[in-house]
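User: Can you predict the 3D structure of Hydroxyacid dehydrogenase? Sequence below.
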Amino acid sequence: MHTFLQQLAGLIGPAHILTEPADTAPYTLDWRRRYQGAPLAVALPGSTAEVAELVKLCRAHQVAIVPQGGNTSTCGAATPDGSGRQLIVALRRLRQIRQIDTDNDTLTLDAGATLQEAQQAAEAAGRLFPLSLASQGSCQIGGNLSTNAGGVAVLRYGTMRELTLGLEVVLPDGRILSQLSGLRKDTTGLDLKQLFIGAEGQLGLITAATLKLFPQPAAHATAMVGVDGIETAIAWLNALRARFGDRLTAFEVIDRNCQQVLLRHHPKLMPFSAPWLVLIELSDGGDAALLNDSLVEWLSRRDMSDGVVAQNETERRKLWRLREEISESQRLDGPSIKHDIAVPTSALPALVNDCAAALEADFPGIRIVAFGHAGDGNLHYNVSYTRPGNVDLFDDEAAVNAIVYDHVYRLGGTLAAEHGVGQLKKDWLARYKDPVALALMRQLKQALDPDGLMNPGKWL
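Assistant: Sure. Here are the predicted structure tokens for Hydroxyacid dehydrogenase:
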């Protein structure tokens, strides 16, 4: 491998190759601290052309590539194995804002730009890029695309798949697919960018994207309200849609156990206690006071146990901060068996009630922490306790997963709604995914990457 590293240094510069353990350490451990890898090196290319030459060199030497963005994956998708033969390719140096077209409402930027940088670039141009995640200060656009990230505003704006118009991708043979189009309509054949969105770096390395922008909302109305159950929450969701249409931007739910986790770690932030909390946000281009009054009037005709409507931007941000602190609070609270699941919104009550009953039957006293994007049927359904005396929670992971996923698929759902599959769920995907669909995906992988060098060891 010494010759390979020398040639790589000649391509991207020796300063941009990390080999010392102290330097590679931030890249080798996943966000949940579950997967630890040992890479050959970490490469930091500075342009798409350098990425293309790097990929060609890797193919010539049969060196596997693990693409990595901000290393915020919760499924081990961006972590190498322990062989010491895989090269991490991190794109943090590719962060240029290439173009903002306000007449066409598009933003073209490098894949190494953080989500927050994309948001800020749009805001500086008087526009909105609506993807919003708790990790937005560190996660990168390339990673958002590779996992088809969703976040809190999918209800109105869609996932990264819906927000993307064009991509630039370095293919496994080093060719550059350049389709950074700002077109919203194009029927000249297959929409090739869709192959790479959600592929977790297994079909190519995304280096740039053209994304949709939207008008900046002039008004927000935001409320956090307690309800008596998930059934009521879904009834509210449907009623809000009927009343406010696409002004309903976000509809989040937080169960009681999740509220208790927040209370332990953020007592000053957490003044609520209810069987379920719903976080509602409306937005439009009109008058803020009128929108706020409309939400207050709508809520006044509902039965709620507790609640508040934000009266200013400071209060609005405080409510959203409470939602955004959930993942970190859970991490501080200890290990959990995580599920990033989705079912049709109409099936959420059945999932919550039936799955909890089945888990309780096998694990009396089990603690489920549930929260998420009820507006699009995506629930983060996490188990942080199974049974007394269990030294390692993950001893029960397989049994818990089988119960949860059986219920999810019985209701027409999925085991990976927005976090991807990675290493964590690859065996479960093989069990539940339509075998014809999975076979087609593997055929595409074989066609594009016959040597299997792009992010090996993941679900393809």
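The radius of gyration is 23 Å. The longest strand covers residues 219-227.
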